[in-house]
Amino acid sequence: MPHEEVSDLVHRFINENWREGQELHVITGHSRVMKKIVRDVLDMYDVEVEEGDPRNTGYLRVMT
User: Fold this and answer.
1) Pairing assessment for the beta strands 23-27 and 56-63 based on DSSP bridges
2) Which CATH number belongs to the domain containing residue 23 in this structure?
3) Helical segments of 1-64, H only
4) Among 5, 6, 10, 45, which residue has the least CB neighbours within 10 Å?
């Protein structure tokens, strides 16, 4: 996915899937650039964001 499209897609994903107390996963791959773009968008929401897990760091966990 082109980096230019990521911001809009993350906004749409969060807005369509937001449920209080739910954990969402955003697949980023291992790209630092992609993770930064996603984190910048998620900073606009009141959510906690963590790196996937020690064995799979290719996604971000989002706690709503």
Assistant:
1) antiparallel
2) 3.30.1370
3) 3-17, 32-42
4) 5
